[in-house]
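Hi V.,

You were right to ask for the full record rather than a summary. Here it is.
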Amino acid sequence: MSLGERVRTAAVLGAVAFLALRVLITLASPHPLLLEMPEACAASSENCARLDGAGGHRMDGVLPLAVPYGGEDDFWAKVDAWAEAEPRVTLLHKDSEFRHYAVQTELWGFVDDVTVSVNPTTGEVVMQSSSRVGLSDLGVNPERLTTMADALR
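Predicted structure:
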């Protein structure tokens, strides 16, 4: 077998292995449809981030958000604009007080769940981003919520 044939064979085998791993990640991942804000991140979690009025989880230095009375429509318009501007974001559920998005990573296809809720009485905003699989998000979820909070201010 010539060097060129070996390189082509290795490239094909690598591509097949990559595609098989992507399919496995997709099939092994849970596919929740959240209709309300999930429970807060576990205290030891390294694959979840939460921003809320109680300080949140893994969101050091990021101030919580609040929606002023009557500002709900403007707030949700900003949330929807953020989702439309971000790549690989899919809206899974939407109502007047809650959104659930799935965000897929570009290379490996890991999916994170991003949820946003507004308390209609207090205006408190709760945002959470959590990985569906794995023990660590490598800092992606806190970074995502920081960027999202900046876009919503």
